[in-house]
Amino acid sequence: MILDCLGQKCPLPIIELARAFPSVAVGETVTVLADDPAAEPDLKAWCRLRGQSYEGRSGDAFLIRRLT
Fold first, then answer.
1. Which of 7, 37, 54, 58 has its CB 3.0 to 4.6 Å from that of 47, i.e. a possible disulfide?
2. What average pLDDT does the structure give for the chain?
C-alpha cells in the first residue's frame, strides 16, 4: 500500500497511516510518501509506540512494516 501524503504537514501523514493500518496484513508494508521534515521522527515514534517496524526511507518514501 502507498499513502501519498506529499504536501501535508504533520501530523496528517501519521493520521493517514493510522487510518489505513487496519487494512494492512501482518508482515505487509506501507509506503508513506511525505515531504514534511517532521515526517521521519514522527513515523519512527509512531512505530515505536505502536510496536511496528520503521524499515527506513528512500527520499520522500518511508517504509513501515506491520508486525502485529
1. 54
2. 96
